[in-house]
Amino acid sequence: MRDQVYPHRDLLGIEGLSPPEIIHLLNLSDSYVELNRSSDKTSKALETLTIVNLFFENSTRTRTSFELAALRLGANVINMQIGDSSISKGETLIDTAVTLNAMHPDVLVVRHPQSGAVKLLSEKVNCSVINGGDVSHEHPTQALLDALTIRRRKNKIEGLKVAICGDVAHSRVARSNFYLLLTLGAEVRVIAPKTLIPSFLSNLGVEIYTDMREGLKDCDIVMMLRVQKERMVGNFFPSTKEYFRFFGLDRKKLSLAKPDALIMHPGPMNRGVEIDSDVADDFERSVIREQVELGVAVRMAVLKLLSDNLLEEKNKKVK
Q1: 313: which residues sit within 8 A by CB, 6+ positions away?
Q2: What is the rounded end-to-end Cα distance, in angstroms, of the chain?
Q3: pTM of the complete model
Q4: Could you tell me if residue 92 is left (phi over 0), alpha (psi between -120 and 50 degrees) or otherwise beta?
Q5: Which tens digit of pLDDT belongs to each residue from 92-132?
Q6: How much is the pLDDT for 87?
Q7: Which of 257, 270, 277, 299 is nearest to 64 (CA)?
Q8: Contact 161, 44 (CB under 8 A)
Q9: Long-range contacts (CB closer than 8 Å, 24 or more residues apart) made by 32-38
Q10: Rg (alpha carbons) of the chain, rounded to whole number
Q11: For residue 288, with 0-12 CB atoms within 10 Å meaning exposed, 13-18 middle and 19 or more buried, which class applies?
Q12: CA–CA distance, 85 with 54 (Å, rounded to integer)
């Protein structure tokens, strides 16, 4: 039966999802954590399905995490190498969608360097589509795994003070986290150089700081963002040394947050640029490795939920 709380065929972003829908996704994800920690991690829940990872940008964590999630659910997995595909020869995204659709995959996980491309593709195929990150727009499963990590450690999200620090302007992770955390009642702060604060933030209801000393005061969560040099056109700060001095997380800056504040980072980390190794490797307060672990559980839950919804949709059409 199609899921009554989250009845959608796709997961394209966090924006627009209701609190019950987000909480439902988190609860389902929670149910897969113990399976991943057991000696027998496999399930046959998706054994007849085919999952295609279609990544137009390089990714280690997200692609591998989705692949592992699908395999643990018993699905067949295909990883498309874009450099060796017809896309590299000039084929359009729509032509690619039509070609893939003719092969009848069940789920497409797509990462694309253009905002809105994943949504366009979802409108041209008959299978479920999951946004694995589209440029600086959204990265919904990353926000879900971040929220699951916070909730498992703090037992709540509502009322927490969360500081999201660094290269906000180029971060799809930050945008999805803004939507999710604000929807669930967290107090969200942004700490970044003026050059890395996007204009859309003024409409979201977040607090904006350009000084780490002010922004980190009494925070429960400190979420650092990777400096995405590959997306930067022009100079956004004088040097990486200067950036770390003012916006990199070290022990001195961390001391301004609550004593039990958690340290987060979506990875990959630029050590010595946005975060000091001593802080990143603090096993009591850093949950960076836990984020990676819980990412598999989140992606298992999303794959299972969307697959069930799609199957129900197809059965109704047959009848």
Answers
A1: 2, 9
A2: 14
A3: 0.94
A4: beta
A5: 888 888 888 999 999 999 999 888 899 999 999 999 999 99
A6: 55
A7: 299
A8: no
A9: 32/296, 32/297, 32/298, 32/300, 32/301, 33/152, 33/294, 33/297, 35/72, 35/297, 35/300, 36/72, 36/293, 36/296, 36/297, 36/300
A10: 20
A11: buried
A12: 11
Report which residue type is found at 139. H
Alpha carbon distance 207, 246 (integer Å): 18
Question: Residues with Cβ < 8 Å from 97, sequence gap 6 or more?
Answer: 121, 124, 125
Q: How many CB atoms lie within 10 A of CB 308?
A: 17
Please tell me the predicted confidence (pLDDT) of residue 94: 84
Count Cβ atoms within 10 A of the Cβ of residue 235 and give its class: 0-12 exposed, 13-18 middle, 19 or more buried: exposed
Place of tokens 């950036």: 243
Q: Using CA atoms, how far apart are residues 64 and 70, in angstroms rounded to an integer?
A: 10
As annotated, the active-site residues are 61-62, 89, 111, 139
Nearest by Cα to 148 from 245, 52, 292: 292
Q: Is the pLDDT of residue 232 over 50?
A: no
Q: How far apart are alpha carbons 238 and 284 in whole angstroms?
A: 33
